[in-house]
Specification:
This protein has 168 residues and is mostly helical. Helices cover 79% and strands 0% of the residues. Helix 2 runs antiparallel to helix 5. It is rod-shaped. Keywords: Coiled coil.
């Protein structure tokens, strides 16, 4: 019977050694699997970041492709011309209101004022009809407000440029 116990003990000892090897192998495989999972997560995060970067770069390229710098610059040039014409008109009106009555009549009768007025009419769109203000202009009121002029087209262009700037 002791022999049976010894045989049984040696058999169990052999199985124990075999199971220790299996457990060590499983632990090693588990660590390897955890390492691969960690590597896969890092790769996923990297790919996700690269995809977002590519998407952003595409959007920026599309926005830059849609921006027509020459039309934006020409719009600013047109606005500048209109503002300069309005300033010239305001200055002329200011001179008219500050001079005495005789000076006003002399200024009105001078040919240079007529030439300047004709030049302004040629430069402004829609001012080809004699005696009419250009489209979008309002008349000057009798009260001396700081800037009584408003040009609807300039305001519209300015708002359009602001809208485009906000989109980008």
């Amino acid at each position: 019977m002791i022999v049976d116990f010894e045989d049984n003990a040696s058999s169990l000892k052999a199985q124990l050694e075999q199971q220790k090897g299996v457990v060590d192998n499983l632990v090693s495989n588990t660590r390897l699997l955890e390492s691969k999972i960690q590597e896969a997560r890092a790769k996923k995060d990297t790919l996700k970041a690269r995809a977002q970067s590519a998407k952003t770069a595409t959007k920026v390229s599309e926005m830059l492709g849609n921006v027509n710098t020459s039309s934006a610059l020409s719009a600013f040039e047109k606005m500048e011309e209109k503002v300069m014409a309005m300033e010239a008109q305001a200055e002329a009106l200011n001179q008219l209101t500050s001079d005495d009555l005789e000076g006003k009549f002399a200024l009105l009768e001078s040919s240079s004022v007529d030439d300047d007025l004709a030049k302004l009419k040629r430069e402004l769109p829609g001012a080809s009809l004699k005696g009419e203000l250009p489209a979008g202009r309002s008349t000057v009121s009798s009260s001396s407000t700081a800037f009584p002029f408003r040009d609807a087209e300039i305001e519209r262009e300015l708002n359009e440029l602001r809208r485009k700037a906000k989109e980008y």
